[in-house]
Amino acid sequence: MTTEVLTQNEIKNINPVFGQLSFDNHEQIVFCNDKDTGLKAIIGVHNTVMGPALGGTRMWQYANEWEALNDVLRLSRGMTFKAAITGLNLGGGKAVIIGDAKTQKTPELMLRFGEFVNSLGGKYITAEDVGMETRDMDLVRTVTPFVTGISEEKGGAGNPSPITAYGVFMGMKAAAKHAFGNSDLEDRVIYVQGIGNVGESLVEHLSNEGARVFISDINQGRLEEVRDKYSATIYEGNNIYAEEMDIYAPCALGATINDVTLPQLKARVIAGAANNQLAEENKHGMQLKEKGIVYAPDFLINAGGIINVYAELENYDKKEILRKTENIFKTTIKILEKADLNGITTHQAAFDIANERIEARKNKN
Ligand code: NAD
Fold this sequence. Notes:
Elements: H1 8-12, E1 28-34, E2 39-47, E3 53-54, E4 57-60, H2 65-86, E5 91-98, H3 101-104, H4 107-119, E6 124-125, H5 134-141, H6 161-180, E7 189-193, H7 197-208, E8 212-216, H8 220-229, E9 232-234, E10 247-250, E11 269-270, H9 281-290, E12 294-295, H10 298-301, H11 304-314, H12 318-342, H13 346-364
Parallel strand pairs: 3-5, 3-6, 4-5, 7-8, 7-10, 8-9, 10-11, 11-12
Antiparallel strand pairs: 1-2, 2-5
Helix pairs in contact: 2-13, 4-5, 6-7, 6-11, 6-12, 11-12, 12-13
């Protein structure tokens, strides 16, 4: 969009940040630009009532800047509720770097990004997300203390993805218990969409439990690698949503539950790692409920990663990380029952509990 094609009146009517569809009273949005390294990033601080805004950095080749802004607004908001429902004293934040992580992520760019994070004085604490690795966080650590997800050799808690996957596994078992009366996943037909860091680790848990796992990814090499390591079948079709299955596990990007896919879904349970799975929370959450599909809220069951990085701030050990992550099973059961009892969506039930915690803290402050 260029200003030349807009009339003065049209410009007056555009609210590019606070008027964005995904804007939800975010406290601060920081646009970071560095000509020398080519860095173009946006840091979103949604809410710091519960503590500093912690959330990973995603590097992605967005179609345009609006898409990047929309993503950071949605992701940072999700982090607020994820931390609150998990009982962590953290606010919600997230960052996006616009670009291709495979070809445009240079050490100089990451260091410059780290300096921008540092300039916020701890209000935002970063970690890894899609397109980032533990070693990137180690590099960022050289210019700011406000980073987590650093390697164990450097004193951090290491890659959070296996813990995220373990939490998703716990949430999935809870949702299975709710839907089928049994949390055992043996022989359940489960489709894992996206077998990156989290997806692969989830496949490992599922195949260990004897589930019939189907995998899909846009990266053919990954598919073969994961198939050969675990007992999983590569999905050869072209419309995963319409397949007969017990459980759909979205572990790639968000908004895969939308107007197009939802009417086709045959799964009885949805439980996966991807953030913001519902394109429109209220509308699609309600449609899932009407179809009798048990949806385990993403921000509840994918919290293992944040629990893992939070350990770096609070100095708790692996045992405590696992205990807190295992607790996702109980919380998920509680949320699913609350939703049924009150006739609301599971997303709403989780959201309400998270919000109550934030409001209580706000009133105490
Ligand atoms: P990743 O980049 O390692 O893996 C993502 C995978 O999805 C890649 O293999 C990619 O090829 C695949 N993919 C992309 N588009 C696809 C499509 N249309 N269909 C099928 N596959 C597709 O990322 P990750 O760290 O495994 O994270 C996966 C999801 O979980 C993301 O949405 C992330 O935000 C969320 N999440 C991750 C963590 C964590 O600890 N890593 C924590 C919470 C949430």
